[in-house]
Write a structure and sequence with these properties.
Blueprint (H helix, E strand, L loop, with lengths): L7 H20 L3 H16 L7 H8 L7 H11 L11 H7 L22 E5 L4 E8 L2 E17 L6 E10 L14 E7 L2 H7 L4 H11 L1
Antiparallel strand pairs: 1-2, 2-3, 3-4, 4-5
């Protein structure tokens, strides 16, 4: 029985590393350079996992043996059964995360392949709201904020890829001592308008978690 151990963002690192090996074989003839590329790809993949069984390590290390696009596809397909799904969440749980929003519009959960989700995000155009859901330490975290379309491409703070963005602004829960009742602090950042694209690209959760922390604390 396969025991999942690969997060979506880690899988994206593996994909990018595997493709870098194939690209090198298609453009480089120097054997020493190719050896270096393979070693670097293997190292980058293994660095994603602080603890891994000998069996899983051997499986990941086989990235070094890739020689063709077909090899990459087979390698990635063999890893898919080991993908950890985004922790299960129901419509009822989502409504509890955003209980102040009485007219909350939810995405169709049945249409989401949670193996390829690092965070959930969706937009409600009618209310000009964006919703983000993340899981940490066994708890789902929900952030609701305003979104402003930018009508341009730039780098997303979450996936660091050049994509079409929106400005997502949420009110921080942190209040300075002796702050007035009217005090509020909005924390904004630019994120992909399409969360599916973002989840296909994200290779680290550090900036995403830092943003969530800035809103939650």
């Amino acid at each position: 029985m396969c025991k999942p151990f690969i997060g979506n963002y880690q899988y994206n690192v593996i994909k990018q590393s595997a493709n870098s090996v194939i690209q090198a074989y298609q453009t480089i003839n120097d054997p020493k350079v190719l050896d270096s590329v393979r070693f670097n790809a293997q190292t980058k993949v293994l660095e994603q996992f602080l603890e891994v069984t000998a069996e899983h390590k051997t499986m990941l290390e086989s990235i070094e043996a890739l020689r063709s696009p077909n090899d990459v596809q087979k390698y990635l397909t063999e890893l898919e059964p080991f993908l950890m799904e985004f922790p299960a969440i129901t419509e009822s749980q989502l409504r509890k995360l955003f209980k102040k929003n009485k007219k909350l519009k939810l995405p169709d959960l049945e249409q989401i392949d949670f193996r390829f989700v690092t965070y959930m995000s969706w937009i409600d155009i009618s209310s000009n709201k964006m919703f983000l859901v993340y899981e940490k330490d066994g708890q789902h975290i929900g952030i609701e904020g305003r979104f402003t379309e930018t009508n341009k491409k730039s780098y997303c703070f979450a996936c660091n890829r050049y994509e079409k963005l929106v400005l997502f602004s949420a009110v921080s829960k942190k209040r300075p001592a002796h702050a007035s009742q009217d005090y509020f602090k909005s924390v904004g950042n630019y994120i992909c308008i399409n969360s599916e694209d973002c989840n296909r690209n994200i290779t680290s959760v550090s900036t995403l978690e830092a943003y969530i922390e800035s809103v939650q604390s």
